[in-house]
């Protein structure tokens, strides 16, 4: 497989087994004139000569009140000022309108690269905008997915087409595996590069950073203690960690609140006292960075995604068992699921077959300059909120074992994969819970984020057993967008 400037060639994709001949890759026009005043306004916003006063006028006149709350003026001015300066402005290429969401294909004048900008019209105020994306947005997939049942024999071609569509646009680098309810591998492929220097291609055996997918492992270790009668989901944090710095919070917060992201804790990595390069050995070691702070809301009254909550859960597991979270993970999840290639590796001691993440700089909001290795983004070692490494084979084996009851009895697992209220949308207790077709639900967990070099999703159709793992070494949201289509395809397999 050959790669030039991070862009996969059509020949290299064919050589990797992806089916591309049937893909309708459109050739977009160049420097076309926009036909809508709103598009012209967006292009003007991105001109370097617009200045702060022009961006403030756009903010006041073109964003709806909801959009202005979503985009505080200071941040709006900073982000779109940086985009305009870096790009030297954009030329319009094409627009794909789907309801209230428009994807504008634009060409940056300085870099001469095309990027997709997602613009969302405010449904309550259709003459104004609710949002403009400030990160590289995936190109909308131009091939309609089948609406009816899919024959198992047709699934590999459909998946290959979807991944090929993204890879040809340099929007995905990684690996994918799909297994049937019997565990048979029906699709497996890899595209892109483990490393650019030295030049090493990805393979299905490449280990990828899981990001937050580890949260499901922590949920299972907690649920094991519940099944053994050593905890309940309603146990207060104070009962387990009586020395937790914020005593009032610990009394009000339950295990269920932590698992459902409704405890009011934060994201951890933006805390001034957190040092990702420090050799934290126990899950409670990062507590000084956040545990004494007041929660964003009283536990159980709202929900917000929280890494800190799962760090606390890891500390709970270690306190109750007297053992390391890493050792418990290896004994109770990795071994039963056959995940021999998985682990939480030290940053300075990575094993073979670990993919280097490639990310856009944080001030390169639309991904105009080349991606850079993400070594400076990674911490010393992952923990109970995320940061492990695995392969697509290990992750599909994990999902299959989970559904089969080989990790924990289905009765307790079923509690984890039930939507919680309060709780995140489409989330249970440490697991994403996404309704698909009628009578079909995707269970699993993804990980990654913009400017991280980490992106992936692992899911199983709970009612049928079709499972997939899609792991990548580019920024989100590209793999996650592909995974939405893979989930739909797996749910429709007859």
How would you characterize the overall build of this protein?
By secondary structure, the protein is an alpha+beta fold. The chain contains 15 helices and 18 strands. It has helices at 10-15, 37-45, 51-61, 65-70, 73-87, 155-168, 215-227, 237-240, 247-252, 255-259, 307-321, 325-337, 392-404, 410-416, 478-491; strands spanning 3-4, 7-8, 90-98, 101-108, 114-121, 129-132, 174-179, 185-191, 193-196, 199-201, 208-209, 358-359, 372-373, 389-390, 432-435, 441-449, 454-461, 467-472. The strands form six sheets. It has a six-stranded antiparallel beta sheet with strand order 8-7-18-17-16-15, with helices on both faces. Strands 3-4-5-6 form a four-stranded antiparallel beta sheet. It has a two-stranded antiparallel ribbon with strand order 1-2. The model is unreliable at 1-31 (pLDDT under 50).
Round the mean pLDDT to the nearest integer and report it: 91
User: What gyration radius follows from the Cα positions, in whole Å?
Assistant: 23 Å
Helix content: 25-40%
Task: Tell me the span between the first and last alpha carbons.
Answer: 34 Å
Strand runs, count: 18
Count of individual helical segments: 15
- The shape, in one word, is globular
Global structural class: alpha+beta
Unreliable spans are 1-31
């Amino acid at each position: 497989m050959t790669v030039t400037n991070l862009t996969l060639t059509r020949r290299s994709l064919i050589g990797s087994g992806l089916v591309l001949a049937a893909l309708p890759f459109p050739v977009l026009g160049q420097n076309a004139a926009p036909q809508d005043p709103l598009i012209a306004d967006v292009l003007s916003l991105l001109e370097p000569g617009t200045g702060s006063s022009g961006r403030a006028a756009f903010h006041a006149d073109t964003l709806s009140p909801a959009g202005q709350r979503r985009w505080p003026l200071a941040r709006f001015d900073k982000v779109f000022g940086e985009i305009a300066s870096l790009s030297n402005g954009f030329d319009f290429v094409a627009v794909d309108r789907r309801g209230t969401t428009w994807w504008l294909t634009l060409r940056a004048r300085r870099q001469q690269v095309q990027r997709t900008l997602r613009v969302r019209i405010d449904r309550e105020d259709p003459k104004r905008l609710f949002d403009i994306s400030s990160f590289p947005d995936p190109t909308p997939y131009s091939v309609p997915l089948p609406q009816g049942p899919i024959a198992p024999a047709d699934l590999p071609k459909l998946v290959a087409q979807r991944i090929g569509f993204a890879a040809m646009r340099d929007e995905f680098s990684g690996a994918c595996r799909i297994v049937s309810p019997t565990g048979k591998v029906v699709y497996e492929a890899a595209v892109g590069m483990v490393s650019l220097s030295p030049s090493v291609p990805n393979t299905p055996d490449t280990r990828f950073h899981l990001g937050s997918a580890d949260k499901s492992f922590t949920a299972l270790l907690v649920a094991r203690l519940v099944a053994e009668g050593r905890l309940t989901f309603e146990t207060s944090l104070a009962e387990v960690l009586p020395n937790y710095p914020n005593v009032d919070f610990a009394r009000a917060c339950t295990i269920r609140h932590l698992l459902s992201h409704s405890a009011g804790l934060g994201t951890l990595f933006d805390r001034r006292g957190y040092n990702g390069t420090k050799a934290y050995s126990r899950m409670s070691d990062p507590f000084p960075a956040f545990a004494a702070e007041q929660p964003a809301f009283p536990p159980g009254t709202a929900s917000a995604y929280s890494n800190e909550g799962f760090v606390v859960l890891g500390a709970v597991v270690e306190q109750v068992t007297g053992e390391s979270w890493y050792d418990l993970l290896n004994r109770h999840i990795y071994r039963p699921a056959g995940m021999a290639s998985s682990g939480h590796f030290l940053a300075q001691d990575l094993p073979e077959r670990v993919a280097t993440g490639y990310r856009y700089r944080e001030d390169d909001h639309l991904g105009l300059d080349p991606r850079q290795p993400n070594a400076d983004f990674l911490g010393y070692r992952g923990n109970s909120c995320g940061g492990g490494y695995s392969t697509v084979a290990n992750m599909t084996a994990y999902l299959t074992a989970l559904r089969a009851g080989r990790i924990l009895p289905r009765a307790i697992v079923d509690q984890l994969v039930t939507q919680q209220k309060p709780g995140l949308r489409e989330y249970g207790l440490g697991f994403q819970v996404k309704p698909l077709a009628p009578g079909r639900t995707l269970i699993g967990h993804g990980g990654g984020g913009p400017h991280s070099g980490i992106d992936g999703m692992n899911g199983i159709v709970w009612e049928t057993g079709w499972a997939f793992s899609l792991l990548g070494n580019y920024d989100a949201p590209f793999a996650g967008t592909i995974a939405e289509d893979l989930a739909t395809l797996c749910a429709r397999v007859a």
